[in-house]
Amino acid sequence: MNKSLFALMLCFQISFSQNTDHLNTVLKQLKIKKSEINLELFTQKVLPYDKSKSVLVFPKYASEVSDDYFVADAYVLVIDNATGKIQAKFIGHNAWTSDAVRLTAISIDTGLYLLNKTTRGFGVRVSFANNSQPNPYRENSLSLYITDQNTLKQVLSNYTVSLYNGEWDTNCAGEFEESISTFNMDKLQNHNLNNIIVTTKIVKTKSKPVKDDCISKETIKKETSKLIFNGKEYK
Length: 235
Prior knowledge:
It is a single chain. This protein is mainly β. The chain has one helix at residues 3-30; strands at residues 43-47, 50-61, 70-80, 86-98, 102-114, 120-129, 137-148, 151-168, 174-190, 193-210, 213-227.
């Protein structure tokens, strides 16, 4: 076997083992069984600005579970990579509901959320979608977290950063709207945290059949708003 390929496989195996160990260690500390969480939606990521720590996120079932419905508590944890010990945690009770609009993905966002000179946050993005062809719906929301000593604080809750929906005849005629928001840190502060400038691009599309063709018309506009920290959360 090629030495570099063997090394790559070994590295992958070690990494996979460490990931499993972290989850097992965390669940043991929380006294939670694996059967009580949604393993498919579990995610973790090393913090790039503090590589001795990782963020783990998973939904813990808070209701009966069926193929098309569950309610879950949001578990967001910061752990020590060497030991797997939980250093800070946030639990959002009944935070996520998956039904006709399904919870499809959870990801950890370690972008440059520099909320002041000494405070950098991280985000958790949650995606939802339905299965309707004539009435499609997709949404991605962002929550922001900061560590304060041994406490993990949620300073922004489920802010919609992208949304796509519409209605059409599944052939041509219909209307769709898509919005995508981006964040930039403001120089101005409130309660010691920077304001967040939100720039949103909104694209509306109308389609209709014309003779043997399908003609679409698109309109684009941009909106700017601010999220301001009120001492507890951004609003």
